[in-house]
Amino acid sequence: MHLSASGERNKPITIAGAPEKQVTLRSLILEPGVSHLRLQNLTVKGYRNWGIELSGNNHYIYFSGLKIQGGEVGVRLTVGDSGEAPEHGPVSHITLEDCLIQNTVYAGVDGTPGPCNHLTFRKVEVSGAGLQGEASYAADGISIERGHHITVEDCYIHDNGGDGIDLNSRDRTGRVPGVVVRGNRVVRNHLNGVKVWAGGKVEGNAIWGQGDNPLVVGVFNCQAEIVHNTVAYNMWARDFGDRNYAATLGYPEPESGGPARPQVELIMHHNIFAFNTGPAHGEPTGIYVGPGVRWQAEHDNVFFSRAEAEIFLAQRGRENGREISRRDISQGTWTRLSGQGEGDLTVNPRFVSGWPQVDLHLKPGSPAAGRGAY
Fold first, then answer.
1. Residues with Cβ < 8 Å from 112, sequence gap 6 or more?
2. Model pTM score
3. 40-74: pLDDT as tens digits
Protein backbone atom coordinates (compact mmCIF):
# COMPACT_ATOMS: atom_id res chain seq x y z
CA MET A 1 0.00 0.00 0.00
CA HIS A 2 1.47 3.34 -1.10
CA LEU A 3 0.32 6.54 0.63
CA SER A 4 0.80 9.75 -1.32
CA ALA A 5 -1.67 12.15 0.35
CA SER A 6 -0.98 14.23 3.45
CA GLY A 7 -3.29 15.51 6.12
CA GLU A 8 -3.02 18.85 7.85
CA ARG A 9 -1.47 19.81 11.17
CA ASN A 10 -4.80 19.73 13.04
CA LYS A 11 -6.60 17.42 10.59
CA PRO A 12 -4.49 14.28 10.08
CA ILE A 13 -5.65 11.55 7.74
CA THR A 14 -6.56 8.44 9.74
CA ILE A 15 -6.39 4.90 8.38
CA ALA A 16 -7.58 2.35 10.91
CA GLY A 17 -8.61 -1.28 10.94
CA ALA A 18 -11.85 -2.18 12.66
CA PRO A 19 -11.10 -3.28 16.25
CA GLU A 20 -12.95 -6.57 15.88
CA LYS A 21 -11.27 -7.57 12.61
CA GLN A 22 -7.71 -8.18 11.45
CA VAL A 23 -6.92 -5.92 8.52
CA THR A 24 -3.74 -7.19 6.83
CA LEU A 25 -1.45 -5.30 4.45
CA ARG A 26 1.58 -6.69 2.64
CA SER A 27 3.51 -3.44 3.21
CA LEU A 28 2.92 0.23 3.91
CA ILE A 29 5.00 2.86 2.09
CA LEU A 30 4.80 6.58 2.78
CA GLU A 31 5.98 8.51 -0.26
CA PRO A 32 8.45 11.39 0.19
CA GLY A 33 6.86 14.36 1.91
CA VAL A 34 3.71 12.56 3.09
CA SER A 35 2.89 13.84 6.58
CA HIS A 36 0.15 14.24 9.20
CA LEU A 37 -1.15 10.67 9.25
CA ARG A 38 -2.54 8.31 11.89
CA LEU A 39 -2.35 4.57 11.14
CA GLN A 40 -3.98 2.24 13.63
CA ASN A 41 -4.93 -1.41 14.21
CA LEU A 42 -3.26 -2.93 11.15
CA THR A 43 -1.28 -6.12 10.54
CA VAL A 44 1.65 -5.92 8.14
CA LYS A 45 3.15 -9.21 6.93
CA GLY A 46 4.16 -11.09 3.82
CA TYR A 47 6.59 -8.38 2.68
CA ARG A 48 10.12 -9.09 1.50
CA ASN A 49 12.07 -5.96 2.42
CA TRP A 50 10.49 -3.30 4.63
CA GLY A 51 7.12 -3.66 6.30
CA ILE A 52 6.67 0.07 6.84
CA GLU A 53 8.81 2.53 4.92
CA LEU A 54 9.06 6.26 5.50
CA SER A 55 10.69 7.40 2.29
CA GLY A 56 11.84 10.79 3.61
CA ASN A 57 10.66 14.24 4.62
CA ASN A 58 7.78 12.63 6.53
CA HIS A 59 6.52 14.40 9.64
CA TYR A 60 3.85 13.98 12.31
CA ILE A 61 3.10 10.31 11.76
CA TYR A 62 1.39 8.29 14.50
CA PHE A 63 1.32 4.48 14.44
CA SER A 64 -0.57 2.49 17.05
CA GLY A 65 -1.84 -1.03 17.42
CA LEU A 66 0.30 -2.35 14.55
CA LYS A 67 1.49 -5.95 14.28
CA ILE A 68 4.46 -6.30 11.93
CA GLN A 69 5.93 -9.70 11.14
CA GLY A 70 8.77 -11.09 9.05
CA GLY A 71 10.64 -9.56 6.12
CA GLU A 72 14.01 -7.85 6.33
CA VAL A 73 13.11 -4.82 8.49
CA GLY A 74 9.86 -4.10 10.29
CA VAL A 75 9.97 -0.27 10.17
CA ARG A 76 12.46 1.72 8.05
CA LEU A 77 12.47 5.40 9.02
CA THR A 78 14.69 6.95 6.32
CA VAL A 79 16.16 5.77 3.03
CA GLY A 80 19.88 5.90 2.25
CA ASP A 81 23.24 4.40 3.05
CA SER A 82 24.72 4.29 6.52
CA GLY A 83 26.53 7.49 7.43
CA GLU A 84 25.27 9.36 4.36
CA ALA A 85 22.56 11.98 3.89
CA PRO A 86 19.04 10.55 3.48
CA GLU A 87 17.94 10.34 -0.13
CA HIS A 88 14.70 12.28 0.40
CA GLY A 89 15.34 14.13 3.63
CA PRO A 90 15.02 13.45 7.37
CA VAL A 91 11.88 12.54 9.28
CA SER A 92 10.48 13.99 12.48
CA HIS A 93 7.70 13.70 15.04
CA ILE A 94 7.13 9.99 14.51
CA THR A 95 5.40 7.91 17.20
CA LEU A 96 5.04 4.13 17.49
CA GLU A 97 2.79 3.10 20.35
CA ASP A 98 1.37 -0.27 21.40
CA CYS A 99 3.01 -1.99 18.42
CA LEU A 100 4.45 -5.49 18.00
CA ILE A 101 7.38 -6.23 15.66
CA GLN A 102 8.52 -9.83 15.29
CA ASN A 103 10.96 -12.08 13.47
CA THR A 104 12.71 -9.77 11.01
CA VAL A 105 15.91 -10.79 9.26
CA TYR A 106 17.63 -7.53 10.23
CA ALA A 107 16.53 -4.72 12.59
CA GLY A 108 13.05 -4.46 13.98
CA VAL A 109 13.20 -0.65 13.63
CA ASP A 110 15.95 0.82 11.45
CA GLY A 111 16.76 4.54 11.43
CA THR A 112 19.51 4.37 8.79
CA PRO A 113 20.82 6.88 7.89
CA GLY A 114 18.60 9.40 9.71
CA PRO A 115 18.34 12.06 10.96
CA CYS A 116 15.19 10.93 12.75
CA ASN A 117 14.15 13.66 15.17
CA HIS A 118 11.44 13.77 17.81
CA LEU A 119 10.83 10.02 17.82
CA THR A 120 8.72 8.27 20.43
CA PHE A 121 8.56 4.51 20.97
CA ARG A 122 6.09 3.68 23.72
CA LYS A 123 4.87 0.22 24.72
CA VAL A 124 6.50 -1.34 21.67
CA GLU A 125 7.60 -4.97 21.72
CA VAL A 126 10.39 -6.07 19.39
CA SER A 127 11.68 -9.65 19.29
CA GLY A 128 13.25 -12.21 16.98
CA ALA A 129 15.33 -9.83 14.84
CA GLY A 130 18.20 -11.76 13.28
CA LEU A 131 17.04 -15.11 14.62
CA GLN A 132 15.02 -16.12 11.56
CA GLY A 133 16.98 -16.98 8.46
CA GLU A 134 20.20 -15.03 7.97
CA ALA A 135 21.74 -13.82 11.22
CA SER A 136 23.12 -10.28 11.00
CA TYR A 137 25.16 -7.70 12.88
CA ALA A 138 22.35 -5.27 11.99
CA ALA A 139 19.67 -7.26 13.78
CA ASP A 140 19.00 -4.76 16.58
CA GLY A 141 15.61 -4.30 18.16
CA ILE A 142 15.55 -0.50 17.74
CA SER A 143 18.47 1.15 15.92
CA ILE A 144 18.61 4.89 15.12
CA GLU A 145 21.83 6.14 13.55
CA ARG A 146 21.21 9.88 13.94
CA GLY A 147 18.60 12.08 15.55
CA HIS A 148 17.69 14.16 18.56
CA HIS A 149 14.82 14.07 21.04
CA ILE A 150 14.36 10.30 20.90
CA THR A 151 12.31 8.60 23.61
CA VAL A 152 12.13 4.82 24.10
CA GLU A 153 9.70 4.21 26.94
CA ASP A 154 7.91 1.24 28.52
CA CYS A 155 9.03 -1.08 25.72
CA TYR A 156 9.90 -4.77 25.80
CA ILE A 157 12.93 -5.41 23.59
CA HIS A 158 13.98 -9.03 23.81
CA ASP A 159 15.57 -12.02 22.12
CA ASN A 160 17.10 -10.17 19.17
CA GLY A 161 20.31 -11.21 17.41
CA GLY A 162 21.99 -7.81 17.79
CA ASP A 163 21.60 -5.01 20.34
CA GLY A 164 18.37 -4.25 22.11
CA ILE A 165 18.32 -0.43 21.84
CA ASP A 166 21.09 1.29 19.84
CA LEU A 167 20.88 5.08 19.52
CA ASN A 168 23.04 7.71 17.77
CA SER A 169 25.84 5.52 16.42
CA ARG A 170 26.63 8.07 13.69
CA ASP A 171 26.17 11.28 15.73
CA ARG A 172 29.92 11.52 16.18
CA THR A 173 29.99 15.14 17.31
CA GLY A 174 28.11 13.95 20.39
CA ARG A 175 26.05 15.82 22.96
CA VAL A 176 22.75 14.94 21.31
CA PRO A 177 19.85 16.56 23.20
CA GLY A 178 16.65 14.90 24.33
CA VAL A 179 17.59 11.20 24.30
CA VAL A 180 15.62 9.24 26.93
CA VAL A 181 15.54 5.47 27.48
CA ARG A 182 13.08 4.91 30.31
CA GLY A 183 11.21 2.08 31.96
CA ASN A 184 12.05 -0.61 29.43
CA ARG A 185 12.65 -4.34 29.80
CA VAL A 186 15.70 -5.23 27.72
CA VAL A 187 16.15 -8.99 27.83
CA ARG A 188 18.31 -11.71 26.21
CA ASN A 189 19.55 -9.72 23.22
CA HIS A 190 22.61 -11.41 21.78
CA LEU A 191 24.89 -8.35 21.78
CA ASN A 192 24.53 -5.12 23.81
CA GLY A 193 21.42 -4.25 25.76
CA VAL A 194 21.17 -0.43 25.76
CA LYS A 195 23.71 1.62 23.83
CA VAL A 196 23.51 5.43 23.87
CA TRP A 197 26.55 6.56 21.93
CA ALA A 198 26.05 10.32 22.30
CA GLY A 199 24.54 10.54 25.77
CA GLY A 200 21.10 10.93 27.22
CA LYS A 201 19.11 9.73 30.20
CA VAL A 202 18.87 6.00 30.92
CA GLU A 203 16.31 5.58 33.66
CA GLY A 204 14.35 2.79 35.29
CA ASN A 205 15.30 -0.01 32.91
CA ALA A 206 15.61 -3.71 33.73
CA ILE A 207 18.51 -5.02 31.64
CA TRP A 208 19.30 -8.73 31.88
CA GLY A 209 20.36 -11.71 29.82
CA GLN A 210 22.34 -9.86 27.12
CA GLY A 211 25.08 -11.85 25.43
CA ASP A 212 27.59 -9.00 25.58
CA ASN A 213 28.07 -5.67 27.35
CA PRO A 214 24.60 -4.76 28.66
CA LEU A 215 24.98 -0.98 29.01
CA VAL A 216 27.15 1.30 26.84
CA VAL A 217 27.09 5.04 27.51
CA GLY A 218 29.23 7.73 25.91
CA VAL A 219 31.29 6.49 23.01
CA PHE A 220 31.18 10.12 21.83
CA ASN A 221 31.51 13.28 23.94
CA CYS A 222 28.30 13.76 25.88
CA GLN A 223 26.30 14.35 29.02
CA ALA A 224 24.60 11.31 30.50
CA GLU A 225 22.41 10.26 33.40
CA ILE A 226 22.10 6.66 34.57
CA VAL A 227 19.40 6.46 37.20
CA HIS A 228 17.39 3.66 38.86
CA ASN A 229 18.38 0.87 36.47
CA THR A 230 18.92 -2.78 37.30
CA VAL A 231 21.71 -4.38 35.28
CA ALA A 232 22.05 -8.02 36.31
CA TYR A 233 22.56 -11.58 35.06
CA ASN A 234 24.01 -10.45 31.75
CA MET A 235 26.48 -12.63 29.83
CA TRP A 236 25.15 -15.85 31.34
CA ALA A 237 23.67 -17.51 28.22
CA ARG A 238 25.93 -20.36 27.21
CA ASP A 239 24.97 -20.38 23.51
CA PHE A 240 25.41 -16.68 22.71
CA GLY A 241 27.11 -15.09 25.71
CA ASP A 242 30.64 -13.74 26.09
CA ARG A 243 32.62 -12.12 28.90
CA ASN A 244 32.63 -8.33 28.99
CA TYR A 245 32.16 -5.43 31.41
CA ALA A 246 28.85 -5.02 33.26
CA ALA A 247 28.71 -1.49 31.77
CA THR A 248 31.10 0.74 29.87
CA LEU A 249 31.02 4.47 30.53
CA GLY A 250 33.18 6.57 28.24
CA TYR A 251 34.80 3.58 26.55
CA PRO A 252 36.91 4.61 23.52
CA GLU A 253 35.93 3.13 20.17
CA PRO A 254 38.08 5.09 17.66
CA GLU A 255 37.24 2.55 14.95
CA SER A 256 33.66 3.86 15.14
CA GLY A 257 34.77 7.44 14.63
CA GLY A 258 34.74 8.36 18.29
CA PRO A 259 37.48 10.20 20.19
CA ALA A 260 40.32 8.30 21.82
CA ARG A 261 39.18 9.67 25.18
CA PRO A 262 35.42 10.45 25.18
CA GLN A 263 34.54 13.31 27.49
CA VAL A 264 31.48 12.23 29.45
CA GLU A 265 29.82 14.35 32.13
CA LEU A 266 28.09 11.68 34.16
CA ILE A 267 25.36 11.46 36.77
CA MET A 268 24.82 7.94 38.13
CA HIS A 269 22.76 6.99 41.16
CA HIS A 270 20.29 4.44 42.57
CA ASN A 271 21.33 1.69 40.13
CA ILE A 272 22.01 -1.98 40.80
CA PHE A 273 24.88 -3.77 39.01
CA ALA A 274 24.88 -7.39 40.12
CA PHE A 275 25.80 -10.91 39.00
CA ASN A 276 27.19 -9.90 35.62
CA THR A 277 29.10 -12.50 33.58
CA GLY A 278 28.02 -16.01 34.43
CA PRO A 279 30.07 -19.13 35.10
CA ALA A 280 29.86 -20.33 31.47
CA HIS A 281 32.09 -17.39 30.44
CA GLY A 282 34.56 -16.99 33.26
CA GLU A 283 34.93 -14.67 36.21
CA PRO A 284 32.30 -12.00 36.98
CA THR A 285 32.82 -8.46 35.74
CA GLY A 286 32.28 -4.96 37.11
CA ILE A 287 31.83 -1.66 35.32
CA TYR A 288 34.38 0.25 33.20
CA VAL A 289 34.83 4.00 33.73
CA GLY A 290 36.83 5.73 31.01
CA PRO A 291 39.54 8.31 31.65
CA GLY A 292 37.38 11.06 30.16
CA VAL A 293 34.47 10.54 32.57
CA ARG A 294 33.82 13.50 34.85
CA TRP A 295 31.50 12.67 37.72
CA GLN A 296 28.73 15.18 38.32
CA ALA A 297 27.19 12.82 40.88
CA GLU A 298 27.67 9.15 41.84
CA HIS A 299 25.84 7.85 44.88
CA ASP A 300 23.43 5.22 46.23
CA ASN A 301 24.43 2.55 43.73
CA VAL A 302 24.67 -1.16 44.49
CA PHE A 303 27.68 -3.09 43.17
CA PHE A 304 27.68 -6.88 43.49
CA SER A 305 29.32 -8.56 40.52
CA ARG A 306 33.11 -8.82 41.03
CA ALA A 307 34.44 -8.50 44.58
CA GLU A 308 37.97 -7.41 43.69
CA ALA A 309 37.02 -5.06 40.83
CA GLU A 310 33.49 -3.69 40.97
CA ILE A 311 34.73 -0.52 39.24
CA PHE A 312 37.62 -0.35 36.78
CA LEU A 313 39.02 3.18 36.45
CA ALA A 314 40.87 3.45 33.16
CA GLN A 315 43.78 5.87 33.17
CA ARG A 316 46.00 5.93 30.06
CA GLY A 317 44.12 3.39 27.95
CA ARG A 318 41.66 0.55 27.89
CA GLU A 319 43.71 -1.82 30.03
CA ASN A 320 45.72 0.54 32.25
CA GLY A 321 43.91 1.66 35.34
CA ARG A 322 42.88 1.00 38.90
CA GLU A 323 40.51 -1.61 40.24
CA ILE A 324 38.07 -0.51 42.92
CA SER A 325 37.05 -3.44 45.11
CA ARG A 326 33.99 -3.95 47.27
CA ARG A 327 36.19 -3.22 50.26
CA ASP A 328 37.35 0.05 48.67
CA ILE A 329 33.72 1.06 48.26
CA SER A 330 32.45 -0.07 51.65
CA GLN A 331 35.42 1.30 53.64
CA GLY A 332 35.45 4.72 51.97
CA THR A 333 38.53 4.45 49.73
CA TRP A 334 36.39 5.08 46.66
CA THR A 335 34.86 8.18 48.26
CA ARG A 336 38.27 9.58 49.20
CA LEU A 337 39.58 8.92 45.71
CA SER A 338 36.62 10.24 43.71
CA GLY A 339 34.75 12.58 46.02
CA GLN A 340 31.69 10.45 45.25
CA GLY A 341 30.10 7.26 46.52
CA GLU A 342 27.84 8.40 49.32
CA GLY A 343 25.33 5.66 50.06
CA ASP A 344 26.92 3.09 47.73
CA LEU A 345 26.43 -0.52 48.82
CA THR A 346 28.22 -3.78 48.09
CA VAL A 347 25.49 -6.24 49.08
CA ASN A 348 23.51 -9.03 47.47
CA PRO A 349 20.35 -7.19 46.36
CA ARG A 350 18.27 -10.35 46.84
CA PHE A 351 16.28 -10.57 43.65
CA VAL A 352 13.13 -12.67 43.52
CA SER A 353 14.93 -15.17 41.27
CA GLY A 354 18.18 -15.55 39.36
CA TRP A 355 19.34 -17.24 36.19
CA PRO A 356 17.68 -18.58 34.09
CA GLN A 357 14.20 -17.66 35.40
CA VAL A 358 15.26 -14.11 36.16
CA ASP A 359 12.97 -11.79 38.12
CA LEU A 360 14.72 -8.56 39.11
CA HIS A 361 12.09 -7.41 41.57
CA LEU A 362 13.52 -7.27 45.08
CA LYS A 363 12.49 -9.60 47.86
CA PRO A 364 10.90 -8.04 50.95
CA GLY A 365 13.58 -6.69 53.23
CA SER A 366 16.15 -6.36 50.46
CA PRO A 367 19.10 -4.15 51.47
CA ALA A 368 18.85 -2.61 47.99
CA ALA A 369 15.32 -1.29 48.50
CA GLY A 370 14.81 2.07 46.79
CA ARG A 371 17.44 1.28 44.19
CA GLY A 372 17.16 -0.29 40.75
CA ALA A 373 14.28 -0.44 38.33
CA TYR A 374 11.67 -1.92 40.69
1. 76, 78, 80, 81, 82, 143, 145
2. 0.97
3. 999 999 999 999 999 999 999 999 999 999 999 99
